[in-house]
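Q: Ribosome-recycling factor, please. Structure only.
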Amino acid sequence: MSLSSDIRRSADERMGKSIDSLKANLAKIRTGRAHAGILDHVQVEYYGSPVPVSQVANVSVIDARTLSVQVWEKSMAGPVEKAIRESDLGLNPIAMGDNIRVPMPALTEERRRDLTKVVRSEGEDAKVAVRNLRREANEALKKLVKDKEISEDEDRRGQDEVQKLTDRYVSEIDKLVAQKEAEIMTV
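A: Structure for Ribosome-recycling factor:
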C-alpha cells in the first residue's frame, strides 16, 4: 500500500462523510410532504433529559400530508405535542389521547423559494468541505514529495486521482441539491 493511495482513500472516506452530512441536512428541510424523518431533530424533555421524539413515540405517515405520533407513555403526549409545536418546523399538532396527528401545511410559493435557497446554501457548504479536503490531500502529497517519500510522478498521479474524487463528489452534491429543489417545488 503506497502512501499516496492512503491519502486518496482517506480523502475519499472524508468526502463521503460530507455527502452523508449533506443528506442528513437536506432531510430536515420540509417539502410539504409528510415523512417520518421530519421529526428526527425535535427534542422532548423525558425524565429531565432531552431526547428525540422517536425515542418516546412511534412516528408514522398516515397519508401524504399527515403524520401520526403514537406516544408509548400516556403522560408524554402533552410534552411531545408541545415540543413539535415549538420546533422550527411550523407544525400545528393535534392531540387525541395518546395519539398526536401532525398535519403538514401546504407551502406557499415564497416559502418554497426560500427553502430552495437554503438547499443551495447547504449544497455550497458541502462543496466547500469537499474542496477543503482536496486541498488537504494535495498538501499531504506535496509534503511526501518534499520529504522524498514519493516521486513527483506519484504526486501528479495522486493529485489527478484526488481531483477525480472531488469532481465525482461535487457532481453528486449537485444531483442531491437538484433532487431536493425539485421535491420542494413540486406542489
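A: Brief note, in case it's useful. The beta strands are 43-46, 49-52, 57-63, 66-71, 94-96, 99-103.
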